[in-house]
Amino acid sequence: MKHGAKRGLKRRLRDAPAALLMLGASLVLLAVWTIYPLVRAIQTGHLSCDQTGRRCTEEGWGQYLDVFQSTQFQNALGVSVKLALMTVPAGLILGIGLAVLADKHLRGIGFFRTVFSSTIATSVAVASLVWFVLLQPEIGVLSDLFSGWIPALKNPGLLRDPGTALPAVALSSIWASLGFTFIVITAGLQSVPKELYESAYVDGAGSFRRFTNVTLPMLSPSILFISVVLTTRALQTYGEVALLTGGGPEPEKSTTTIPYLIYGKNSLISGNIGLKSAAAVLLFLISLVFALVQFRGFEKRVHYGN
Amino acid sequence: MATDIASVGAVHGWRKVGRYSLLVFIAVVVLFPIYAVLLQALKSGPDSLDHPRSLLPVDLTFSTIRAAWDQGDLGRLLMNSLFVSLVVTAGVIITSLLAAYAFAFLDFPFKGPIFVFYLATMLVPGEVTVVFNQRTADSLGWINSYQGLIVPSLASTFGVFLVRQVFLQLPRELREAASLDGVGHLRFLWEVAAPLSRPTLGALGLFTFLGTWNAYLWPSQVIRGDRAHETIQIGLDRLKNNDISKLNLVTGGLVVAALPIFVLLVVFQRQLVRGLTAGAVKG
Amino acid sequence: MRASHTRRPLYVLVAVSLVAACSGGGDITDPGDKATTPTSPADSVAPGETTAAATTTTVAPETLPDCPTDALASATGTTEITFWHSMSAALGEEVVKLTDAYNASQDKVKVNLVQGSYEETADNYFLANQGDRPDLVQLPEYQVQAMVDTASTVPVGQCIEASGYDTSAFLPTALNAYATQGVQWSMPFNISNPVLFYNKKVFAAAGLDPEQPPQSLDEMRQFSQQIVDSGAAKYGVALESGFDSGGGWYVEQWFAKAEQFYTDGDNGRTSRATKVLYNNDTGVELLTYLQALLQDGLAVNLGDNSQTGFDNLLKLADAQEPAAMTIATSASLGQVLVVLAGGQFPQLAPEDVGVGPMPGPDGKPGALIGGASLWPVDTGDDVRTAATWDFITYLVAAQQQSQWAAATGYIPVRTDATELEPYKTTLATDPRFSVAVAQLAASPDALTSSGPVVGPLREIRSVLATAVAAILDGADAKATLDAAADQANNLIADYNDRND
Predict the structure, then answer these.
(1) Given phi > 0 = left and psi -120 to 50 = alpha, else beta, which region is B144?
(2) In this predicted complex, what is the ipTM?
(3) Residues C470-487: pLDDT tens digits?
(4) Chain B residue closest to A40 (CA)?
(5) Does C116 lie at the interface with B, CB-CB under 8 angstroms?
(6) What is the CATH number of domain B73-279?
(7) Nearest beta carbon to residue A25 from set B40, B109, B155
């Protein structure tokens, strides 16, 4: 035992210089550009500073709690959570549905696969502007086509109606994430061993049963991955709101998400770096909690390995 | 009638027609927003706020796109975006290869905690880091520069994990045989491990290129008014804010900004999927 | 198993968070529950009466940085200075043109430009170290108190005095807007103010004189009634509640027209502002008036105008349900005419657009300036300060102001610019551009004619805009204004606490 442990330690120390060399670049980069600002933000979150961020007084960690409990933050949290509820399940279902649909050996299926992945090529700006142009009541195409069914399209416009503004933002988000979801699920589908389907067929399972008993469980790691990514994106939605609604029709502020509360053009805390940092750190913690809850919550269902 | 076990899941006859129709319908729905905006960019004049009254691709003109190109100086912005995206992609592949190698093949003190450190960085949102990163960049003199755009993005935890996953699936004997032959770490990485992970590296490269090309938050903090260094996404934002009465100009800009990426995607879509499959996105 | 180790604490954390969230709940801008005296409804002040505290604070001249304007003469070589401006698109191009011409015309000073948006420029300026700040920065009119509080600039008044610069041709409203406590802090550069845009064709069809726009709010209502009754248009007025327009900035305008103070401290000009006054009778009357216009079908509410920024102007050109009048900034006149000339809105030709002064309570004249001003930064380097002053005098010289106004649609900061080309021709060919100029010149000489100066002015406008939106939707004007005033006062108290 001792001999083995000594060999292990020796080996570890021998590898150390090489490890240092190889990890060095990314370690330094991450430390400087990700961890350092996070630490600074946490530190600033309990300070109260002037406009320049220089003259600061200590407010205490209670500032974090106060920000969390404030009505504006709670409203923004509600908006962010609602957005997540609208985009994540829909995004998953659409992504899985499309991937399954396109997972057949049909002629020209490559074309359809490309079409379904295409939205991954859009940036937040591009996707939001596309939908911005489309949803303008006076100058967008959709109002001409569909205002018979959805009058709010034309009057006052989906983005200006407090009831439809957030769903419109969600729509733009879902569309933009479709490509990503499709690609990941397709990759997941292609790594399902065919034998599993064949043995299920032999056992007498119909296509639906094969889907629920073979496909879904084998897809579960990908589904979990997408769920976490989409939830994080929903909680951190900023660009779509900035471009589509500017924080949502007043006075309800129905699309003011937490990032928009901090950085939006009508933010009430733009001159207070202490509150901004506190809110940003809270956002990080909330994203972390949501991610962890999903990991733990799905752990039983996720099927790893063979 | 008994179906061949090999054709389980294959589609025939009416079901085939049904499937095709569904595929076409969804493709139309997914593509429609892009098509509509493309059409608006190609049909309406740049000075017009109007949208095309019909959806037919007739009476096309390139004047809007050309106007957007000139007014937004999109040519230079495309070059900037291309340069930055290529450098970052190369950098991310390199740093990911190195770090993944260390985690997959080396054993060293504090390996566990360091891994958790990497994990933690993946969840930190841009909103938290942006403000202080801007100060850091400022004190380094990197505002309005290529370094400012490139360096902070050179390490990607996602990349490290993806490549590590692939490395872990390489057979142990490969590494052991190589070390018996006296092959050092870097040589093994360069001559064996990396080539074997090519599909995954390709997928990582594509994702990184996409992400960098589409990035807006950080570039908008680093580039302040220096048109020479702006990327295409900032230019797009500028087009929208500047002359909102020329909304059609924005559609022209959108087409220019998104086109290269679409082309890239069309060409490499299959590799992207294959690369992800090899890496097996398994959490 | 590892999972159960982390699962329980995780769920406890979530539960605790939910409990924490549901209890309490203050205002994010008042986290420390700083002692704010409950605001009693402010009484309306008679016109001209001051609201300044008994002890007014004036800034002692000795404490201000010097402006050594003659340092440039003795300097050798070319002095390079940096100018952070916030003009984009066509406006930005004009700044570039002016700067290039200046650089080419002499070799003592070379100006380098950095452009950002108003918000970016402000953020970058505030957060930078003094050494990283530029020599000259252009900041909008709501940043006056914030800039003063940084104590990082050289008051333009020092330069004016040191060099004996003649400001007699300048619009008093423009200069006063950027002066507090007896100090001229910055130099106005680009000015606009809100004017009334109306459809002359509709006026004529309704039996109104197309050359006589309404001068008072009462007239605006009467005209709307006539228009709606005659069927010439669906709505009389298009209202919106954006915070830099109908929901915020215009309210300040209306208070100025009514010769009422918006904050205490004489609008923050004789002493630091500590609270807002807009929940007084004037404010309630004003917003109830707007609410009534909507409820009586004489106006349409276009929301917060966050989409295009000119939703209300588009409403004038609407094919099905147009409005006949709306208030918008004078700076958009040029753009409006260009768009209409494009023929995309056949029912509204450029010549059908009429421009009148912004109607106010009792038809009293005058307006507050919008736009931005130039702040020289105290770099500590005499030569660069002198060079910056030289550049400033160039930018606000009559010829440059004429060129600037003609190209951008802004109003020249000085009246003698209206007699020089190219602006002279602009005014002569289209007299609509002179409405905004005349409106500014008509501002009465009173403290209320300079708008409010208070630290978090932008945030206060945002709060008010939310309140106005609620009122336009039908909420009770008094209660909503009181709540908004409370929030605004919290903002001010918090700002003063951190920045004083």
Answers:
(1) left
(2) 0.84
(3) 999 999 999 999 999 999
(4) B132
(5) yes
(6) 1.10.3720.10
(7) B155
